[in-house]
Prior knowledge:
By secondary structure, the protein is an all-alpha fold. The chain is 77% helix and 2% strand. The chain has 2 domains: 205 residues, no CATH class; 111 residues, no CATH class. GO terms for molecular function: metal ion binding; metallopeptidase activity.
Amino acid sequence: MSRKNSKTKHAIFSLGSVGLLVLAKLKYVLAILKLMKLSSLFTLFLSLGVYAIVYGWKFAVALIYSMLLHESGHMIAAKKRGVKTSPIFFIPFVGAAVGIQEEIKHSKDESYIAYGGPLFGTAATVIALLLYLLTHGDVWLLAVYLGAVINLFNLIPFSPLDGGRIVTVISPKIWLIGLMLLLVYSFFAPNPVIVFILIIGAFEAFSQLRRPYAARLSQGFLHLLEKRKQALQSFQQTEDVYERNVLAYEDEQYGRRLKERVRFIRENEHLRKNYKKVRLALLEKRLEIYQFTSFQDPETGLEWLERNIKEEEKNALQMRQYFQTAAKEKILAGLAYLLLIVVLGILLYISRDILPDPHAFNAAGRAIF
């Protein structure tokens, strides 16, 4: 049998195996396609073409396969938690991502959504290994190697990487370990992507550090709303006309002084920045409350206050409870996280040391299989 015919049969057998796999998992494929849109498909094929030109078709298909399944895991996990996402978008030489389009309510949800990517990525890597053992197609061996590397890297416990978001359910303090790993890696293998991750991670860490401050500020706003509600209720209960007029006049004067105070702080450049920011936030909130709760129309003011008190109570409670997780849930999350690392480590070892060296493949990628 000629070498050309052997390659042709090999390719047909590989394609057949893929076809059977697709049919067996059709509902998952349809779910992924349903979540993707035309713009997402455009960036997918654009990245596929760019990678194929630079590194060859084998590498391009293996890489896109790994990234697509990884990001699909995030989308499906987000959908299960009722969190809206953007379609997957691919950026050549940067990677792929899914945008979260609404605020995540709890660290458990953040961890769950983050875990979905490496979980699907690991499953895709195992499937690629099985397909390689069936077909001996180089593309599947590359998919095993790239899938293991991509998902292991993403499990570094430093936000915005998946590992950093997974461990938020345990403690954001674990990010220090991930930061050390990234700094060591960037020292031995400088990479602009690592620098970008470190910059984004710094903003993420700052955001997490501000959560206690934001919670206190929310509590302060809630106190102002409740105090204003008591004032309006007291005004409503006052029956004496003279006393009502006095209260209305004093309230009007208070509003004028409040506006002057806000203007003074805004224009004063000599105040310390931190003091000015906090003080101005509280005064502006007071002014907003005053403007929507006039003594001239206490009924409308009380309705506005009731709505805002409920909303502020919800925000304050969410901020306080964001990291509150039972010990059992933390242990389970930690074990699941470590299990993925172990499985991916084994897959990486197999692809590099037991199977042929993935770096030895022809970069030109003359054939996909």
